[in-house]
């Protein structure tokens, strides 16, 4: 199984991709509520999240990365804290992230 297929099947299932642009195949944009579910599912599977982008009016509003928090990409403390900080400072944004699914998970 490929990473994109795993994400669609196990992480993004039943969530609405709000990206309607040309790159909608590669970038999944989620509402605040849906992205919170994405983060919970990523934590459950131990998926790495390298960065989180918040979007406003089809433009990137802010980008944060695990390096900014000096944490591993698989450590949920960094991405939960980053998400909480962004959503409280600016409600109503859309969110995307870059993920890393381990080969062990893909082999299942």
Question: Would you give an account of this structure?
Answer:
By secondary structure, this protein is of the alpha+beta class. It has one domain (3-106): Ribulose 1,5 Bisphosphate Carboxylase/Oxygenase. The protein is built from four helices and three strands. It has helices at residues 3-11, 32-45, 76-89, 103-106, and strands spanning 48-56, 59-65, 94-100. A three-stranded antiparallel sheet has the order 2-1-3, covered by helices on one side. Strand 1 and strand 2 form a beta hairpin. Helix 2 packs antiparallel against helix 3 (76-89). The longest helix is centred in the middle third of the chain and has 14 residues, at 32-45. The radius of gyration is 13 Å and the shape is globular. It starts with a helix and ends with a helix. The mean pLDDT is 93.
Mean pLDDT: 93
Side-by-side strand order of the widest sheet: 2-1-3
Which of globular, elongated, flat, extended, rod-shaped describes the shape?
globular
Structural class: alpha+beta
Q: Termini separation (Å)?
A: 8 Å
Radius of gyration: 13 Å
Output the keywords.
single chain, 108 residues, alpha+beta, Ribulose 1,5 Bisphosphate Carboxylase/Oxygenase, three-stranded antiparallel β-sheet, 3 strands, 38% helix
Short description:
Helix content is 38%, strand content 21%. The chain has 108 residues and is an alpha+beta fold.
Helices and strands in order, then pairings?
Layout: H1 3-11, H2 32-45, E1 48-56, E2 59-65, H3 76-89, E3 94-100, H4 103-106
Antiparallel strand pairs: 1-2, 1-3
Helix pairs in contact: 2-3
């Amino acid at each position: 199984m490929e990473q994109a297929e795993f994400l669609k099947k196990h992480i993004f299932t039943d969530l609405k991709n709000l990206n309607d642009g040309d790159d909608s195949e590669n970038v999944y944009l989620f509402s605040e509520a849906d992205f919170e579910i994405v983060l919970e599912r990523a934590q459950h599977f131990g998926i790495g999240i390298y960065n989180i982008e918040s979007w406003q009016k089809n433009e990137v509003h802010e980008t944060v990365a695990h390096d900014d928090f000096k944490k591993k990409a698989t450590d949920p403390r960094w991405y939960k804290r980053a998400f909480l900080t962004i959503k409280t400072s600016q409600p109503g944004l859309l969110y995307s992230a870059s993920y890393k699914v381990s080969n062990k998970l893909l082999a299942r």
